[in-house]
Amino acid sequence: MIPLLSRTEALDRVNHALAAAKRAGATQSEAVLMTDVSALTRYAVDRIHQHVGESNAQLRIRAVSEGRAAVAAGNRLDYQGIDELAERAVAMARASEPDTGLEIMPETPETGYVDQTTYYESTALLDADQRAAVVGEILRRLSDAGQDGFGALTNGLSEHAVANSHGMQAYQAFSDVWLSVIARAREGADGRQPPSGYATAANRDWVELDPQFVASTAMEKASPRASRQVPPGRYRVLFEEEAAAELLSYLGYLAFNGLAFEEGRSLFSGKLGEARYPSLLTVRDDPTDVRGANLSFDFEGVAKAPYTLIREGRVERVVWDTLRAKQSRERTASGERSTGHALPAPNTYGPMPFNLVLSGGESDREELLRTLDHGLLVTRFHYSNTVDPAKTLLTGMTRDGTFLVEDGRIVARTQDLRWVDSVDSLLKGLIAVGEQPRLISEGPGYDLRFLSGVLAAPVVCESFHVTGSA
Amino acid sequence: MHHRSKAVRPQPNREMQLRAFAQEVLSYLDGLAYGDVRVVRIRSEYLKLKNGRLEAWSDEETLGFGVRVLVDGAWGFASSLELSSIGGREAAAEAVRRAAASARVTAEPVRLASVAPHVAQVFSDPAESPFLLSPESKLEFLHQAAEPLVAAGVTFATASLGAVEEEKVFASTEGSLIEQRRTTTGGGIDATMVRDGDVQIRSYPAAHDGGWGLGGFELVRAFDLAGNAPRIAEEARALLDAETCPTLRTTVILDADQVALQLHESIGHPTELDRILGTEASYAGTSFVHLEDLGHLRYGSPLLNVTADATTAGALGTIAFDDEGVAGQSVPLIRKGILVGLQSSRETAPLIGRSSSGAMRASGWNRIPLVRMTNINLEPGESSLEQLIAETEEGVLMSTNKGWSIDDRRLNFHFATEIGWKIEKGELKQMLRDCTYSGVTPAFWGSLDGLGKVSERRVVGLTNCGKGEPGQSMPVAHAVVPARFRSVAVGEGE
Description:
The structure holds 2 protein chains of 2 kinds.
Chain A: H1 7-23, E1 28-45, E2 47-65, E3 68-74, H2 79-95, H3 121-125, H4 128-144, E4 147-164, E5 169-185, E6 196-203, H5 211-221, E7 233-239, H6 241-254, H7 258-262, E8 282-285, E9 307-311, E10 314-315, H8 322-332, E11 356-359, H9 365-370, E12 374-388, E13 393-406, E14 409-413, E15 417-422, H10 423-428, E16 430-433, E17 438-440, E18 454-456, E19 459-469
Parallel strand pairs in A: 7-12, 11-18
Antiparallel strand pairs in A: 1-2, 1-4, 2-3, 4-5, 5-6, 7-19, 8-9, 8-11, 9-10, 12-13, 13-14, 13-15, 15-19, 16-19, 17-18
Helix pairs in contact in A: 1-2, 4-5
Chain B: H1 18-27, E1 34-50, E2 53-71, E3 74-80, H2 85-103, E4 119-124, H3 135-151, E5 156-172, E6 177-195, E7 198-204, E8 211-214, H4 217-222, H5 225-240, E9 243-244, E10 248-254, H6 256-268, H7 273-277, E11 306-309, E12 330-335, E13 338-339, E14 360-361, E15 370-371, E16 376-378, H8 385-390, E17 394-406, E18 412-424, E19 427-433, E20 435-440, H9 441-446, E21 448-451, E22 458-467, E23 472-480, E24 483-490
Parallel strand pairs in B: 4-6, 9-19, 10-17
Antiparallel strand pairs in B: 1-2, 1-5, 2-3, 5-6, 6-7, 6-8, 10-24, 11-12, 11-16, 12-13, 14-15, 17-18, 18-19, 18-20, 20-24, 21-24, 22-23
Helix pairs in contact in B: 3-5
């Protein structure tokens, strides 16, 4: 596969959009172009049952006319289509209301972005035959081990181009590949749900992804061992990377969000500077870490940079886009500026950190396990959701590998467990952080391809509230 | 390596007839065992007011096509925004390449249940198209809806309005040529109170994007948002000081809105045949239901009757034909508490000896159809909500979903609602905040002992049902009534 456009073509389209918006009467405008060439091979048990792909794009034009603003979006990339889209955006802006905030955009062009590699030819070269061959080999190994496999292998290319009428010009091309493997034993003991294991890997560079290691990790978790029912209660717990990443993602969405912070809906509203967590907790947002889903600018074209959000247990900052930072400055004279965390306009959710890093620990897996005299090891969660967003109170189930640990050793598999707990209280009870974080991504997502994920290390927390099971 | 044209959508293309293009692409599939083409245009508009200011206004359109083929008994699918001859040829060729690659890792070839080819045009245009309404009148409507919330001084007063128009042509190598157009519209209001880190919310007519249905702006007008706003504002304010939902096992009565999500998660999804067969295991999960349970499994009490009905008037999941050309239909899933039917496709239905239930739907041109809910409806009972409460010695009435979670086999669930009220000796008593309940699917539905009557039936639209890889967000609906359940675990406790 090759990218839908190129740097020259993509910047030509967004600049054409700005010119068209100006011709239509816009006093300010912004054009954001995202393209996507994507393929996915999905498998279950003994076959590939879905083998799909798309070439798609979205051009979003935010037009401002005398302080009134609106956004029109489409996927036509021919000049006539762009002209029509710009005219629609400007007509909407004229019919809109003044001073809504939607007219706020960066007014100073960026002078330089972090130069980083985000596109790898190896990922672009991965084709249907190769994906099928990789999946076939995974299924063969699983079958030989008496297990069924379920998962997906997806690769794709995307481009982001952002320009605005104040001179912003940004373009970046990305590649990424993601593999998931659920290994499930063919027979469950005593008629119970069969044991299963899960592993994923994500990378911008296909060469760096080891599919058979992913498969082995999932297979090991689904291997035969004793099973034991675990009653509700509070347990010391080792969250592996998948589970730790999900908890941190919720913290990003609910608490590091500058809009929620401003509105008093964030756990950290009014609490910056507070020494809230054990000193071994440091959380960063680092879009320059090449182990992660690195990128150089946000959806307003603002340059990305590393920020420490929690430093040695102390809550240091939240993240901002241009509008929310301005509102914060006006309310508190805080001096906040965009930290490069804007989503495409109009964004009612607020700014989001897409490159969270939970790391800094030195414990290897055996050392982490040794912190558990009697506790649980959780591979991943399923269908976690918020119960009380302002308190980061969540509920979810464990899935594909929950184990009982005694005296530092895994002694049995447990049933899937229902839990209700807050990220806040779990992190307050942080005991240990593992070494070598790895990128945990949720995969291809629902919209245009955009790799995001948490660089997470496994963690041990003192008290995990298990409330039941199926 | 596949090299494709860099010519992105030659202009002009707006005038291209979707039908002619679908037929052209279909011609590239000659000789294949099976192939179909969908050309889809989706336009969506969204407006949101927050504290009297227009926070969001967007108008988005996407146009493209998808080609699905069977080669050597395996599926391949490709899709593109390039509505041109070269775009069509390349997508068709890529779909075939993918199918051929899949066939090398496929034990049993796909066999499709037969379906009579349809040639049809079904255009369900609304009484009052939201896309033809002037911006000024939409904004005025939203301001009027939210004004009582602002006047009441809630921390955040929001009002939203959305609409989606979908135009679709389906053509298959078996001779179907189906053109459909449908418009869905929705809107609602929220009142949020924030005090010292405590956040409480009330929504109307439903949480998570308001109330949605198949139709136009007339649907949103009928909600009487402005008329309900003062009550919503007052409840949000009162929730800050309300008693916290106690932790106990008690009787729970759910309002129709919460019944809709309960039904969706614990009956809708587990009766999707692709989940039962394992092909959704890698993302949304499987099902506790097994193939051999059909006709035998006691899913709930004898009061429980559930139907998958793609023909429900005005519902978000109502379709004339699904995305493999099967007519929308009404299929019983549960009768008197026993599982009698499943939601299926042409590929999966033969495995239970039936014809497709017409449930294959794709979220857009760039996604393949999957087994999806249309409208999963709970048949009404004989009671009124007042009667259900009057017959309850002790319990909790819960209203309006706030949070949801269920395991991958759809057994263990946990729900939170925006508001609740204590029931004592058949009467509603004090308001409760932070209401939650949890349970296990068959036991929970087995404890069903009261249902609202047909006059209390509401059709609740959900816009965000997620499934598939890559993900697909699908609009579905549930015709539901209030329901009562005995001995339910309520509250968080320790």
